[in-house]
Design goal:
Elements (H helix, E strand, L loop, with lengths): L9 H8 L5 E4 L9 H8 L6 E9 L3 E8 L6 H8 L4 E3 L2 H8 L17 E4 L8 E4 L5 E5 L1 H8 L2 E3 L4
Parallel strand pairs: 2-6, 3-5, 5-8
Antiparallel strand pairs: 1-7, 2-3, 2-4, 6-7
């Protein structure tokens, strides 16, 4: 019997180093459907369980990341306020990989090249577990919201998106 190879991304390695319980989920992906709603559909789970990672730039603090449920829009004003910025803007997709080490559709809040201030929508606390990108397209990591917060040293915020 063949044993399935365990996927090891930076995100998975970091979670294992901290001995945090997690589950890796794989799914088929395609270039046209990388958004969280498609990921949720493809995995057969609710969009509230899939948390997308959004990388931004604040006018005062520099780069930061936000994690919000797949069915929510990020409230830029709320994030700017909690992060000490007047405004925050999405970074251009072309800059994502050189900045984080991850590509669009595979950007994890865990294991970026540099640890940016991270903010998680506090509605995540209502879920037993959530899923975030595992650092590669087609890979999701399931863990508790509290463990994600510990791993990223994130600040909870009210998104109201």
């Amino acid at each position: 019997m063949l044993k399935k190879k365990v996927i090891k991304t930076n995100a998975v390695r970091m979670i294992e180093q901290k001995k945090i319980p997690y589950t890796v989920h794989e799914y088929e992906w395609d270039e046209q459907n990388l958004d969280a709603m498609h990921v949720a559909h493809d995995m057969g789970v609710s969009p509230e369980e899939i948390y997308k990672t959004i990388v931004l730039h604040g006018d005062k603090t520099g780069y930061l990341a936000a994690c919000v449920a797949g069915d929510m829009e990020l409230n830029l004003k709320a994030l700017a306020k909690v992060s000490g910025n007047k405004k925050v803007e999405l970074i251009p997709v072309k800059d994502l990989e050189k900045l984080t080490g991850y590509v669009r559709g595979g950007c994890s809040p865990i294991g970026m090249k540099k640890q940016f201030p991270t903010y998680i929508d506090e509605v995540a606390k209502e879920q037993k577990t959530i899923r975030v990108s595992g650092g590669k397209r087609g890979i999701q990591i399931e863990l508790t919201p509290e463990d994600l917060q510990k791993m990223t040293r994130a600040i909870w915020f009210i998104n109201n998106g």
